[in-house]
TrEMBL record:
Ni(2+) binds at H2. It comes from Sodalis ligni. Belongs to the HypA/HybF family. This is Hydrogenase maturation factor HypA. One of its GO terms (biological process) is protein maturation. Signal peptide: none annotated. InterPro entries: Hydgase_Ni_incorp_HypA/HybF_CS (IPR020538), HypA/HybF (IPR000688).
Length: 112
C-alpha cells in the first residue's frame, strides 16, 4: 500500500505549513490527486486520519480532487485523456506521447 508513504509525506508538509502560518488547528484539507498516482481515496482518507492523530490536523476533513490524466501526442499534436494507463493517441494511433497532466499529488489548500 503506497498510500501510507504518500500520506506521511503530505502530512509532514501540511504540519510544516501550518507551523509557518502559526495555525492552531486545521479543519479541512484539499488535495489534488492525479489519476496516474493510482491511489485509493479510501486508503488515503484512512492513512490521513491515522497520521494526523494527535496533531493539529486531527479530525480534519480531507477532500480529494482527482486530476484526469492527459497526454499530448508527438505525432499529431493532439491532447487526449489517458484512460487506464493506455498511452496511445486515439487519433493517429501513435504511442509517442507525453503525459502533461495527471501525475500530481499535492495539498492545494487547507482551512484553519
Ligand atoms: Zn496523434
Amino acid at each position: 500500500m503506497h498510500e501510507a508513504a504518500l500520506t506521511q509525506g503530505l502530512v509532514n508538509i501540511l504540519l510544516k505549513e501550518a507551523a509557518r502560518h502559526q495555525v492552531r488547528s486545521i479543519t479541512l484539507v484539499r488535495l489534488k490527486v492525479g489519476r496516474m498516482k493510482a491511489v485509493e481515496p479510501q486508503a488515503l482518507v484512512f492513512c490521513f486520519g491515522a497520521f494526523t492523530e494527535g496533531t493539529l490536523a486531527e479530525g480534519a476533513e480531507l477532500i480529494i480532487e482527482p486530476v484526469p490524466a492527459v497526454a499530448t501526442c508527438r505525432g499529431c499534436g493532439g491532447d487526449f485523456e489517458v484512460i487506464k494507463f493506455h498511452f496511445q493517441c486515439p487519433r493517429c494511433q501513435s504511442r509517442d506521447v507525453v503525459l502533461i497532466q495527471g501525475d500530481e499529488l499535492y495539498i492545494e489548500s487547507f482551512d484553519a
